[in-house]
Amino acid sequence: MLSRLTISNFVLIDYLSVEFSSGYTSVTGETGAGKSLFVGALSLLLGKRAESSMIKQGATKCIIEGEFATIPQQAEQWLQENDLLFEGEEYCLLRRELATSGRGRCFINDTPVSLTQLAELGAMLLDIHSQHQNLSLTGSSFQMRMVDKMLPSLAPFEAYTNAYAEYRGAEKALAQLTEEIRRGKEEYDYNLFKYNELNEAQLKENEETELAEQEEQLSHADEIKAGLFETLSLLEGEGEGALSLLLQAERALQSVATKVSTLEEYAERLHSCRIELNDVRTDLGNLSESVESNPLLLEQVTDRLDLLNTLFQKYRVASSQELITLRDQLKALLQQHEDQDMLLQEAEQRLAEARQSMDQAAAVLTEMRRTVAQKIAERLTEDLHQLEMPHAYIEVALTPTDSPTPMGYDQVILLFGANGAKDIRPIGEVASGGEIARVMLAVKAMLAERDQLPTLLFDEIDTGVSGRVADKMGKILQSMGHYLQVIAITHLPQMAARSGAQMCIAKRYDEQQMAHTELTLLDAQQREDEIARLISGDTITEAARAAARELLNND
């Protein structure tokens, strides 16, 4: 709870330090006295955006400090996680400093922190509800948060949130993969064409070298055959052929080799030459038989070489081996594309599974919301009956959304009827300002019990109400004060009289006619005077005093 608020050099406030008690405290004051300054200072303390005009004229620095006692467990845990907890202490200090230089500073327990950190902790310590926020009651997002805050467990919502994230991730992955495949389709078709062309060519390594030799042989077959015939004739000629002459020479040398030992070696060498030359004659004979003029084969070889040369030029390579390498590379690329098709099927399957899981989680969440919505409707209807709306009826309806949302498959619509259930409509369409104020108070009272927020500040939530309704609203705030600290800025005497403590905001002028705003805790007599003023205006009558005493003594 807020135990002390200290303000210095803030707009019209020179210096102010006031202590707050637990329970319900009302804040009153004349119109224009500066009640908005009180709310503005607290808003700054909770992380609201600051402006240089907020610093009192003539001052160089504005300081707003709040002391919060008996901090809730959630806030204590946050302080521990951020190493900002005062060991052994059950209070917390928040401080905001504004300077004319434009450099502001934030502190938690005298430790410098960021504005974001100040706002995070502030949201756990105090909630400010302004009269303008009454309109948020008509918004679908507020109505959804109202239902979800009353859920007995966050597990279904967390399960859905995780499932929704999985689904969106799978959906995004599928879309990206589909786009990649779409962009690669033209490239795939071209690669497939090239691969088919190379594959159908039935390429062989170094094929062009063998074909070039074969073409040369076939192109000169008659000339080659004539040369071979002449060569064989010279080798085989009867009596005059090289082989015959070499045999004669070998025999002649052998006949005298027995006479000279060194000649025996030469005879053997001649024999070896004759054997080698005979092998050459045999091979040339076989070759001569294979060399034939074959125009058809020559045409086939020439066509094959032309094909290879065309492919060399087209793909800018110099050998069949390079074409084979390119073909294999294209095959790998095509395989990758085929793998993408498989990946696409897998991505579609993951998306379908994620959708099924999300549907199941959404169904569980919807069912729990329906149960909670019924209880909320009953609670709010009952509270409105106590706020002088005996025929009011509330229904919290759930309708399906057109598509999955981060909040589920549900849309919450708060339906209201001032005269029973037969003519209920969305609350923003039929409720007056005073009716919306009462519904919002009932909602805040319900949520306060659930949230266990230590302090709740109402800024003129009584707009549009008066008389007995104001008294009933005061009773609700009084009741709320039993389990949390309630501070209400009000202009209604009935609501002020129901508070356990009352403060008054007043504007005074110094000798130089400079305005100054003060906030004072009222004693019993001062409370009577202030409530009487709220009843009758600046001229306080005895009747107004009597009415004030009656309100203050009313149980």
From TrEMBL:
Domain annotation RecF/RecN/SMC N-terminal: ranges: 1-505
Record-level Gene Ontology MF annotations: ATP binding
One Pfam family linked to the record: SMC_N
Top-level division of the source organism's lineage: Bacteria
Similarity section: Belongs to the RecN family.
UniProt function note: May be involved in recombinational repair of damaged DNA.
Protein name, entry field: DNA repair protein RecN
Organism of this sequence: Porphyromonas gingivicanis
